[in-house]
Amino acid sequence: MIKLSVIVPVYNVERFLPRCLDSLLRQGVEDGEYEVICVNDGSPDGCAAILADYEHKHPGIFKVIAQENQGLGCARNTGMKMAKGEWLTFVDSDDYLVDGAYRYLLDHFCDEEVDVLHYGYVFAYTDGKSLYDHDALPEGKISYDGDGAELYNRIPLPYVWSKLYRRTFLEKNRVCFEPVFLEDDTFNFEVFLHSPHLRVVTSNIYRYEQGNVNSQMTIVDKEAVKRQLQMLLPVIEKIKQYMQEGDGKLAIGASRTLNIYLNHYYNKMLKGRLTRQEWRKYSQLLKEQPIYKMDVSRESSHLGKAIARLKNWSGESYTVYCLTEKLLNKVFTPIMRPRIIASYTQANS
Fold first, then answer.
1. How far is CA 248 from the centre of its chain?
2. Considering the entire predicted model, what is its pTM?
3. How, if at all, do strands 197-209 and 96-97 pair?
4. Rounded to 5 degrees, what are φ and ψ at 222?
5. How distant, in Å, are the alpha carbons of 45, 87, 164 from that of 75?
6. φ, ψ (nearest 5 deg) of residue 45
7. What CATH fold (topology level) applies to the domain 4-209?
8. Which residues are bridge partners to 4 per DSSP?
9. Which of 17, 25, 211, 237 is the most exposed place for a label (fewest CB within 10 A)?
10. So where are the chain's domains?
């Protein structure tokens, strides 16, 4: 019986892919209990050859599926259709995991009453050097055990790679990815609408790569930024519709999620370095939303509140937009953000 299916979408990650796949070989889960489904989403680099090599050397673990480029959500859906494991999870192909992590979680926390198991992560910020932390241990303890909807209303639970999902729970509730930007958020919103039994453990087993310049989270190509802005609008509309017509179960979480989407919307506007005409177009799209201002009160730090105010003002004035763009792209992103990430990583190491 296959205990765990790991779905790995692959696109333009030749530099990081071997590290990811090697870490999945060190999870302590035996052949026959474990499958890694790699979906090559039309990657233009050397990923296909790397995947073929791993599948040839480890046919009992790796299964490779090739498809034309359709995006991250569609690649994950392809993997979900092929998955046979009792549990299902996702790994981004530029990330990796602590040795023995999945074996530890399956043995200690994945009993019959759990629908979703959530675990922790640590930023990995590479500069071309390997960050294999072989000495890191997966041990942790339970910090929450109960109604997932209740916790979702209290704290953000966005990432799919920080969770194990019971496959039958996802199938029963027909949860899948939508072809949108920030697909993790919409996926988990659907998951927690169905009040899964959620267990949270303090094991920081996942390593979240921050140095991939080809990541959709860091890309600054103007045309891609414009597409992502357009893709956010239907997501905002869906959450807004739930707040107006839903049962209210996730009202607080939905409001917070809207704020997260708006934050990303502003970030993409700023990274796109829009002309005045482009700025006017996308600002107008934003203003057509009944909720179009970031909630400054949700920011915990003075810096966060100041940035939120600047983003709100940047939707009203092109002069403020240009100023905020320079602060984000020339001060915060290249200078302050690496220091924040480094301090976070040090505090969690």
1. 25
2. 0.86
3. antiparallel
4. -60, -45
5. 17, 18, 18
6. -100, -150
7. Spore Coat Polysaccharide Biosynthesis Protein SpsA; Chain A (3.90.550)
8. 34, 87
9. 237
10. 4-209, 222-347
